[in-house]
Amino acid sequence: MKNSLELSDFKKIFDNADMGAYIYTKDEGVIYVNKSLLSFLNFKHQDFIGFNFIRYIDETEKAEVIKYANLAFAGEMDDIPYPVEIKIRKGESGGKIRFYPEVMIIGNNKYIVGFAVNITGEEKIKKKDKMLGLNDDMLNLLEKFNNMLTGILGYASLLKLKERRKEDSEIIKKIYDTTIKASKIIGSIVPPQDVLSEEENRFLIADEDSISVAILREILEKQKYSIIVLSGKEIIPETIKYLDTIRGVFVDIYIPGVNTFGYISDILNKKSDLNVVLMAHERELREVQDILDVHDVYFLQKPIVEDNVFNLIKLMERS
After folding, report:
1. Is the bond preceding residue 256 a cis peptide, omega within 30 degrees?
2. CA-CA distance, 31 to 27, in Å (whole number)?
3. What mean pLDDT is reported for the chain?
């Protein structure tokens, strides 16, 4: 029976999760952060790793954050008082994040492990009070409940990795599945999005695999997105032609006659905020990692599953 999680266990859960997650050490600062947290902070990986992120925290909050961390690592606090709300600014943009940090033993070392919720848009939700027909107390309750669900999902995900009796695993799965259902109910109450512009509503698919294209197209069109499908060597000039009228590109890692790494570099150089989704099978994960190490792109594993595509789209909406 495992008594503690390993660092790789944590990363395995949260690398592609749609909740923000990070690991913080006293000596190295942030040593792990997932793409979801970077997306809703509008950060690059290098801006968050180490102690870099501290320079983006409002001056009035820096000392408090460092104090909590030092006390936790010194063993003078069993836990960090949470949630901790922090304003983060980068240039003209920024956001307000609610962190749920926890002091945990991973392997043989002490870390601060945390989940994060983007609360930047809460005021916007409140402004739509009349549209919802809900008062402030009800909206506040929904927001608090949604944040609690985020924490429950995080802990349930961690527990799913640990070895245990079969009956315990079944209970944890029920907690996890029930929390997902509750989260979807809360999401259904939030005001609907405004109608998407043509650029926000269109995706390009570059793939030679007709089956994958058909499945992905059906999933995206079900979500009311418009699709353009490209194949062959013409994908490079054709993609550039569409850059100003698309939200993102789903590209397979292997297209005959096309250097995928160069293709991604080229289109991101021309439009840095483009949502690029790299698609590949499990046997191609090494090549995927080579690209993810350089480019800030999303990843979708084949065979394509509807829930994975849906979660990816939600992640893009946050960024």
Report:
1. no
2. 10
3. 76
Q: Hey, how many other C-beta atoms are within 10 angstroms of the C-beta on 157?
A: 21
This prediction has a pTM of: 0.44
Q: For residue 112, give the nearest of 37, 24, 8 by alpha carbon.
A: 24
Beta-carbon count within 10 A of 70 CB: 12
Residue 217's pLDDT band (cuts 50, 70, 90): very high
Is residue 149 exposed (0-12), middle (13-18) or buried (19+ Cβ within 10 Å)?
Answer: buried
Which pairs from 85-94 meet CB under 8 Å and 24+ separation? 85/119, 86/57, 86/58, 86/61, 87/57, 87/58, 87/61, 88/41, 88/53, 88/56, 88/57, 88/58, 89/56, 89/58, 90/41, 90/42, 90/43, 90/47, 90/56, 93/42, 94/56, 94/120
d(CA 44, CA 49): 9
pLDDT tens digits, residue range 105-117?
A: 777 788 888 778 7
Orientation angle between helical segments 136-161 and 7-14, nearest 10 degrees: 130
Please answer whether residues 98 and 84 qualify as being in contact, where contact means their C-beta atoms are separated by less than 8 angstroms: yes
Using DSSP bridges, classify how beta strands 226-230 and 202-206 pair: parallel, antiparallel or unpaired. parallel
Taking the C-alpha atoms of residue 124 and residue 143, their distance in angstroms, rounded to an integer, is 12
Closest-CA residue to 203 (of 186, 184, 192, 218):
218
Quick: pLDDT tens for 144-185: 666 666 667 666 666 655 556 666 777 777 776 777 666 666
d(CA 46, CA 44): 6
